[in-house]
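hey can u check if this looks right to u? its 233 residues, i copy pasted from the old doc so theres a chance i mangled smth
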Amino acid sequence: MTEDLVLTPSASVSEAIETRRSIREFEERAVSEADVREIVDSARRSASGGNLQPWHLHVLTGDALKALLDRVAEKSKETPFGDGPEYSIYPADLSQPYRARRGKVAEGMYELLGIARDDVVGRGAAMAKNFRFFGAPVGMLLTIDRQMGPPQFCDLGIFLGNLMLLAREKGLHSCPQEAWSLWGGTIREVLGLPESELVFCGLALGYARGDSAINGLWTERAALDEVARFSGF
């Protein structure tokens, strides 16, 4: 597994998994409509229980993307923390080792950005970049019908994961963003979506900036024996 940012297309699924990372600074270079459509078309084959295919995907670029970003920026002046969460992103009392893992990635991210722990303004500015899709030319929003439960949210996660891996096959990178769930009401307003569609997350898509410090963030994973138990071999 490499800690270096890889910009070239992935030649296999395993390579796509190893080279995928959350990118927080993108080039201005446009992504072709053909590439985006191929990624989404392939992701349609994602597994889902009962073949419900519970995901809904809204792909924005150009003026459509700008309209959403401008509306969020405007509303942020009055409600900087969004419309209110669509769901609880993390458990209220996160136990170990999960709390330590979350803390470590936040510490590494802010260190690369040169933002001190007590720099409230700097951290707020870094958070706000979420709502510009980190400068990506393509912003995707994943929604799901509110009647769906945990099994269907799992299916949505499979679909999201496949989108990210298929992006690597094209030499693209992405960043999944649960932060967009804070702006569910505004998203429904701008896109004309029914109240029944819950906004699960956003996904920034584009070409990663190779000279960006924050794109150098590499996160550890728990050891194999910590997450898996093998029996009968």
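The helical segments are 13-19, 33-43, 62-76, 98-113, 120-128, 150-169, 184-191, 224-227.
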